[in-house]
Amino acid sequence: MESRVLSRTAAAVHGIVRLGKPARDTACVVSARPIGAVGDGGNLIWGRQLRHALVLESPPVSGIVSAKREILRPSFAAASSPAEGSDSAGEAEVAPVGFFNKYPALVTGFFFFMWYFLNVIFNIMNKKLYNYFPYPYFVSVVHLFVGVVYCLVSWSVGLPKRAPMDSNLLKLLIPVAVCHALGHVTSNVSFAAVAVSFTHTIKALEPFFNAAASQFILGQSIPLTLWLSLAPVVLGVSMASLTELSFNWLGFISAMISNISFTYRSIYSKKAMTDMDSTNLYAYISIIALFVCIPPAILLEGPQLIKHGFNDAIAKVGIVKFLSDLFWVGMFYHLYNQLATNTLERVAPLTHAVGNVLKRVFVIGFSIIVFGNKISTQTGIGTCIAIAGVAIYSYIKAKMEEEKRQMKAA
Q1: For site-directed labelling of 292, which of 50, 63, 108, 118 has its Cα 20 to 30 A away?
Q2: Which residues cross the membrane (predicted)?
Q3: Do 105 and 95 form a contact (C-beta atoms < 8 A)?
Q4: pLDDT 10s digit of each residue in the chain, 410 long?
Q5: Are 244 and 387 found together in one domain?
Q6: Close Cβ partners of 180 (under 8 Å, ≥ 6 residues apart)
Q7: pTM (2 decimals)?
Q8: 53: part of which helix (H) or strand (E)?
Q9: Are 196 and 127 in contact (CB under 8 A)?
Q10: Of 282, 273, 261, 269, nearest to 206 (Cα)?
Q11: Which of 36, 62, 96 is the endpoint of a domain?
Q12: Is the peptide bond before 160 cis (omega within 30 degrees of 0)?
């Protein structure tokens, strides 16, 4: 009986070996690499690599059965290199480790670099455009229009696949988009009126407005330490504003309205929490915001643009550069916002907070270098104090959020 079972086992193994090259060992199995946990719905990708197994010379019948089961069971080892003793390593399929998984820190660093780089380029190009084409309402429409076209093209090729929209979700997103549009337009009005560095210094007050809205509108209790951390921000912005050479009330008030608008955008965003991915969500918000921005641009700047705005810009730089500047400033605006979202999704809240502060430092620093803006000593000190205050505030708030998450998880 034992000899008959052994002979049948040997014959079966011999038949399998003959399908490939002759092997010196007595048995072989098909190896598999698991992709995800099978119990969680993962898939198994079966490879063609042949691995050698050892058959005992004279086991009892029960031993043969167990050995046979062991031989036929797929190997779930994570190794992707050919097994030792294989006749041909070329027959093995090596599963490469993805670059994103192999170097996560390097990839995240690249995301941060591109986020900062695109933001700096946008601010510089935007200000240069305003130097010969001072129409912020129209330029705001161009920013959103180029981004919307980009989103529509991406949807058409399925990168990403368009998420469905219904009336209920639309009602939730409209207030978010209106606040986004108002904040975007007023930011551009400020950029056109004053130096880029000054606008970003004023916009450093945004955490103060967020804290105030959370306390007095949403009814959330803000700790005293968080309020105290905002004192340097208010002090620094006040110092910078008093001696800013490019100061005017239009630029200052517009930046303040932008802060308030983005604060309310955050409030409405919390009410409009949805399972839609951030890329699709930002695309829908951009489309709605575009329709919000078009009417005021036509009413406030339309007659001037038709009369002399376009002609003056073309006369100064030429039609090719003018159209090119409009396109690229819109493209950089959309890309830096989209990349900021993708970057912040990869990191912890504390890293997010530090990243936002460093971004503002980069923009202020590069704008001063590129445009050669002269700032007084008091303005420089005030700007540093404001940025330091934002950093402290962001750190404390991020730590509080982390503690809340840990308490919920426990």
Answers
A1: 118
A2: 103-125, 137-157, 172-196, 208-229, 249-268, 280-299, 319-336, 357-373, 379-396
A3: no
A4: 444 444 554 454 445 444 444 444 444 444 443 333 333 333 323 333 333 333 434 444 444 444 444 444 444 444 333 334 344 444 445 545 566 677 777 888 888 888 888 999 999 999 999 999 999 999 999 999 999 999 999 999 988 889 888 888 899 899 999 999 999 999 999 999 988 888 888 887 877 887 888 777 777 777 888 888 888 888 888 887 776 667 788 998 999 999 889 888 877 877 776 778 878 888 999 999 999 999 999 999 999 999 999 999 999 999 999 999 999 999 999 998 888 877 766 776 556 666 777 787 788 888 888 877 777 888 888 888 888 888 888 788 878 877 888 888 87
A5: yes
A6: 261, 262, 265, 285, 289
A7: 0.67
A8: strand 43-53
A9: yes
A10: 261
A11: 96
A12: yes
CA-CA-CA-CA torsion sign (149, 153, 159, 163): positive
pLDDT of residue 351: 67
- In whole angstroms, what is the distance from residue 393 CA to residue 230 CA? 6
| Tally of domains within the chain | 2
Same domain, 89 and 55: yes
**Domain range enclosing 84:** 2-96
pLDDT at 144: 96
Residue 98: left if φ>0, alpha if ψ -120 to 50, beta else—which one?
A: beta
141 and 74 assigned to the same domain: no
Residues listed for the chain: 410
282 touches 180 (CB < 8 A): no
**Are 15 and 157 within one domain?**
no
Helix (H) or strand (E) segment spanning residue 19: helix 2-19
User: Which of 48, 63, 96 delimits the end of a domain?
Assistant: 96
pLDDT, residue 408, reads 81
211 and 180, same structural domain? yes
The answer to whether residues 41 and 122 belong to one domain is no
Which of 308, 345, 306, 290 shows the shortest CA–CA distance to 111? Answer: 345
- In three state form, how does the secondary structure of 128-174 look? HHHHHCCCHHHHHHHHHHHHHHHHHHHHHCCCCCCCCCCHHHHHHHH
How far is it, in rounded angstroms, from Cα 80 to Cα 16? 22
Q: Structure tokens of 117? A: 């780089």
Looking at the fold, whether 106 and 85 belong to one and the same domain comes out as: no
What distance in Å separates the CA atoms of residue 154 and residue 291, rounded to the nearest whole number?
20
Residue pair 29/50 in contact by the 8 Å Cβ criterion? yes
Instruction: Region of 158 please: left (phi>0), alpha (psi -120 to 50) or beta.
Output: left
